[in-house]
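Changelog note: in this version the structure field was regenerated for every chain. One regenerated record is shown below for reference.
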Amino acid sequence: MKEDYLTIKQTGNHELIIKKSRFIATIARTKSVNQAEQFITATSHKYHDATHNTYAYTLGLDDRQVKASDNGEPSGTAGVPELKALQLMKLKNVTVVVTRYFGGIKLGAGGLIRAYSNSVTEAVSNIGVVRRVLQQELIFQIPYNRLDEVKHFLQQKNIYIANINYGINVEIHLFTDMPEQEAVKSSLTNLLAGKISFTQGQSRYNEIDINEHDYHNQ
C-alpha cells in the first residue's frame, strides 16, 4: 500500500469564460472505473444541454487505469489535455468532467487544449489539494504512574493520542505515519526502559491540506 499520495480535497466545480464559451470543470475523487463512470454519467446528465461533456480520469496510485474522452471536440483537444493536467499535478484517484457551452467563437486546436487544461488546473486550485498519508495504529499499555510522562513525550513529538482506555493499566491508542512508526516505537521503548510491547491496530489515511506554496514544491 502506498504510504502517501495527492488528491483533491473534495468534490467541486469551477467555471471559466473563454471567448464567450463557458467551461465548467467538475471534479471528484473516484477509486474504481464504476465510480468514475457513474460520476461522468451524472455530471453529463446535469449538463445535458451542453455542447460537450468531455472527461478524463486516473485511477490507482500507479495510474494503472486512465481514460480520456473528447466527446465530439477535435481529437486530442479536450480529454487528453485534462488527463495530462491531472498527471502533472500528481493527483490520484480523480475524475474530471469539463462541460462546454459553445459561445459562438471558435478557439482552434491550440485554444481548446489550453482552455480544457486550464479548466482542470483552476478547478483543482479552487477546490484544494490534500496529501493522504498512510498511518498505522499502535496500541500499548503503561502503568498509571508513567501516563503523564508518556503524554508529555507524545506531545513533544506532535503525536496525537487517538484513545485512552483505563483498566488495570492504561491502554493508549495512537496513529503514526508509516515511515515514522519504528522510530516512535524505539523512542517509547527507551523511555520506558524496555517495559512495553506494541500491538498493531488498523491502518488509515490521514489527510493534510496542501497550500499553494507547498503544492508547487511537491
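Spot check on this record: The CA atoms of residues 44 and 53 lie 6 Å apart. The beta strands are 4-8, 12-18, 21-29, 52-59, 65-69, 94-101, 129-142, 161-166, 170-177, 199-210.
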